[in-house]
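Provenance

Sequences were taken from public entries as deposited. Structures were produced by running a predictor on each sequence independently, with no templates supplied. The record for MEI1 protein from Semnornis frantzii is shown for reference.
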Amino acid sequence: LLFPVSNLCGRCRPRDTDLLQPSLNFLYWSLHQATPCSQQRAVAVLLSNVSLLELLQKVLECTWLWSPASEPAYLSPEDALLCSGWLLVASLLLYQHRYNTEVHQILSLDLTEVLNAVIFRKKKPVLLLVSIMQFLRTLLRQNFSSSLLVLLGQNTAQGAMQPQPSSLQDAALYPLAMQQIFLLVVSLQNLLVHIQLQKEMLLSQAVVACLESLVEYLYVKNQDAALHVASQPWHRFLLFVLLNGGQKSFLQPEVLRLMTLFLRYQSSNIISQKEISQILQEAAEANLAELPEATSRALHLFLCQV
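Predicted structure for MEI1 protein:
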């Protein structure tokens, strides 16, 4: 089915949302549900379809061209298609890298546009924001080195950052600049505070995962920059807000993952021995069999880090 569905997508236009959106979803789930052997073949089939990749290029570009929905929470058919497009491209990046699959058509994107979508996030539905962050996380984990994607130069659109490699530090962090990194970190922190009020669990997982990948990327590129970002005092305030937003337990997945992140990068000014003891105490008193899967996984990572 991958052949006819991918060929059908290649003959569509981005405005054919009724046909494209379920088709892209089918391709996405085909990749993720396949066995490893079949998965490798599925990636090769999709990456050999030049028309499909050209269509995906157009769909991603529509993110900046289409007018947003009147309400950020409302997912229009166009927004749903954009979600499917970003998630499928993120998956293709992931599996192309994993299997070193031959690429027949290269995608191109402006990195500043992608970052601005997260940093400014004007009227973007939650699911679209999650999809773009999943894509950004994949880029970070691959150190922006995918053979499927080329990143274009910084644009000069109003409101966009225009970082210049004005220092050795910026040169080491290329294609990111320290100004972009700090704006992104602050935006992710603000999103977590907003999520605490709105209880958007899917978005909170995406935000924490993006923050984790960002600091890991920085640590590979420049350890001093990574430790500087991880030890920002604002993180302390962020944890305070998360722990006083109604659900005061330390056994919240996003809190545990943030604590693990700060422990990993030795941010002793953010997390103290007292808080580590409180987490261990809560874990000792909890019924571990009844913990949600996300909490169990986050607690396991925290204990391993300790």
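The first strand starts at residue 107 and ends at 110.
The chain has a mean pLDDT of 89.
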